[in-house]
Amino acid sequence: MTEDTNFHHGDVQGQDPIIRMIDIEKHFGSVIALAGVSFDLKPGECHCLLGDNGAGKSTFIKTMSGVHKPTAGEIIFEDKPMHFEDPRDAIEAGIATVHQHLAMIPLMSVSRNFFMGNEPTRKVAGISFFDKKLADEITMEEMRKMGINLRGPDQAVGTLSGGERQTVAIARAVHFGAKILILDEPTSALGVRQTSNVLATIDKVRSQGVGVVFISHNVRHALAVGDRFTVLNRGKTLGTAKRGEISPEELQDLMAGGQELAQLEGSLGGTV
Amino acid sequence: MAESAQSAVGGDERVKEISPLRQALIRPELGGMVGTVAVFTFFLLFAFDSGMFTSQGVMNWSVVSAQFMIIAVGACLLMIAGEFDLSVGSMIGFAGMMIAIFSVTLSWPVWIAIMVTFVLCVSIGALNGFIVVRTGLPSFIVTLAFLFILRGFTIFLPQTIERKTIIGGIRDVAEGDWLASVFGGKIGQGFFVWLGDNDLIGTFERGTREGQPVVDGIPMLIIWAIALIIFGHVLLTKTKFGNWIFASGGDAEAARNSGVPVNRVKVLMFMFTAFCATVFATCQVMEFGSAGADRGLLKEFEAIIAVVIGGALLTGGYGSVLGAALGALIFGVVQQGLFFAGVESSLFRVFLGVILLGAVILNTYIRRIITGER
Hints:
- The complex is a heterodimer of chains A (272) and B (374).
- In chain A, strands 6-9-10-3-11-12 form a 6-stranded mixed sheet, sandwiched between helices. A 4-stranded antiparallel sheet of chain A has the order 2-1-4-5, with helices on one face.
- In chain A, a hairpin with a 2-residue loop joins strand 1 and strand 2.
- Chain A is 33% helix and 26% strand.
- Chain A contains 9 helices and 12 strands.
- Chain A has a domain at 1-105 and 177-225 and 245-272: P-loop containing nucleotide triphosphate hydrolases (Rossmann fold), CATH 3.40.50.
- Chain A has helices at 57-64, 87-93, 110-114, 132-145, 162-175, 192-207, 219-225, 248-255, 259-268, and strands spanning 19-28, 31-41, 46-51, 72-77, 80-81, 95-98, 121-124, 127-130, 180-184, 211-216, 228-233, 236-242.
- Chain B has one domain (29-40, 51-371).
- In chain B, the strands form 2 sheets. A two-stranded antiparallel ribbon of chain B has the order 1-4. In chain B, strands 2-3 form a two-stranded antiparallel ribbon.
- The A-B interface holds A 87-88, 91, 97, 99, 101-108, 112, 115-119, 121, 128-130, 132, 144, 147-149, 151, 156, 158-159, 196-197, 199-200, 203, 224-225 and B 1-4, 6-7, 10-12, 15, 18, 26, 238-240, 242-244, 246-247, 250-251, 253-255, 257-260, 313, 317-318, 367, 370-373.
């Protein structure tokens, strides 16, 4: 890490981090995907994880969400060391991931999707039934809060736009008590308007005290909502910066590994 | 950052109001309902005098439809969960043969024979499912293998043990057995005698059964069909597990990410399909009093056709048990109705092909409406 930039381990003052990942390493056979990544997240902040393709972003968040077990390193969740055996453990602890490929099923209704895997039940004569009425009410309420008007809870998710689907997925994670929300490239496939809807959703969620990990390789999207920015390159952290301490150009350079892109940018007239 | 503008009160101007017709179209049972009405109208008009709508005639096509319904319920839930089972027909033959071998050849009490057969067949269903979820192979291939494996055993075992391909004498050993009567018996005899005495249904006019009603009770087969339909419908639409079935078939990866135990759901549905096939086999064996190596031939396809006519998508994630039951009803009524109407029975297959094609095209169109794609 170079000292002559403003790029250092930035710190949002005050609260303790909800999760700390210390020197995480992950090896797949002879491939070192992560070579010592440190990261932390506080409640109510949006921490952007940036990096080019292959930088290890996905491996890193999969480690955080319990899909992979780290080869070395420590995960401290709410001041206690955690060892997630599988994604369910992480979900139960309050770490929710909204995947690049959404966990939404187009043929199913919004309310059935919203409660997929967490269906409310009501006992009738000792047999527990899916409480559809309650599910529908909660879904409509949550969607209204997020600014999405549904025709009805039975509307199929397939009829929603990409941004609306992201919002449903985020609202669902928050409703089920996520303390940490991991968003894996939520804006990568979206148009301008839909992107701003998703970024607005992130802002709403953050103000409810949820910590958001926002993975992106789009610097502009990250700068629009991020409180802190961590850049990964070739499985290592290049450092963490606070909002306002770093310019888009600096971030872009770090993501691309610096030099080459600076030259390329010169020849392309600063459009990258 | 701009607040999302569409949070204004009232509706979103971009959400087009959809007509009630389109709304009705996305109900999976629609095709089945329309088909049922069409089929009944047709036969009421053209075959009313053929005896199809006398009490005996009604019982005739009801029993055939109930047979289709039993296997359609299993196939329907499995298809919604995103898988096929092509081994249903072979499973029917195999289960029947096992009951016969256990009860006749080995002289076990019939209730033990039936129970062991159920355990055996449901285990084979679980094996089917286990191989599918573990290897990730298409269930089409895995269950095609079991179609041949089970049929092979169904022919091999009786030939080796009894030197014939049909084992009879089950009715004698099943006499008075409590579990056998759950599958082969009839209920409501008193009610039908009453109906006969009051001239509401026909009675025999001569012979040893003079004065008895021509229909002497509702076969347990029909009771099983109704019970399985109710069970399947409630399970699918009213329970948590039903939501998991839709999710597993809609997108297994997305369901897994949301914490749905997809593999367990799929294996359980394979087991349920095997259970339904065994119910069918047991009822059939008790009715015929024998088990044959060729029983259940082509039943897997008939089950799938009934389910598709009932509005389920072949790709999973969408469908209805009630629709599948209506599909089975159409199937049974047409098959028997053509017989009553004296139409050459080979034409039934032509009808089947045509209606299958029509149903699949309609379903594809419906899916486009639901998902909003063009």
